[in-house]
Amino acid sequence: MSNSLRDQLLGLGFKDAPTPPARPKQAPRRQDAHKSRPGPGGKPARPAGARSREDIDLAKAYAIRAQKEKEERIEAERRKQEEARQRREAKARLEAFLQGKALNATEAEHVRHFEYGGKIKRVHVTAEQLKALNAGQLGVVQLNGRYLLVDAATLAEAEAIFPAAVALKVDPDAPDGDDPYSDPKYQVPDDLMW
Q1: What's the rounded Cα separation, in Å, for the pair 39 and 2?
Q2: Sign of torsion, CA 54 59 64 69?
Q3: The pTM is what?
């Protein structure tokens, strides 16, 4: 049932490559280096090892393209390393800045869930902290795998140092864009009777 690639190509109409006719062995002839015998069609034959101008141009083009791709890869790696270095420095500055400014309470009994990095995360807060967090007076910063509760001024400075570390920043004046039923066409009329 399984056909080889060769069989499949032959079935599609491709033909076998012609085999060159066997040449009788002859004694080597002496040729002058500056003369070349005409080849088929009257054109001078190329000496063995010589390449045409098109071959050389094509080889140069490939070499130039390969060099350019290599330089682009090196530049991309350099940029990636530079961005990683800047991130490390920003994280270190943020860690030094947040020393002693976390408001996380050990007696926190409430859990506030939020979305960060495409996943649902949580931070434990007290009832007063939950109200302040939802009002935008507090915020959450992610540092070394922990979520630190900080006041709004500290959150703003942390955002200036390393914006990616801001895990939760509540704007109480912002409309709720995630609720598809906040559109007026979904509002329940006042006179609706159940």
Answers
A1: 45
A2: positive
A3: 0.53
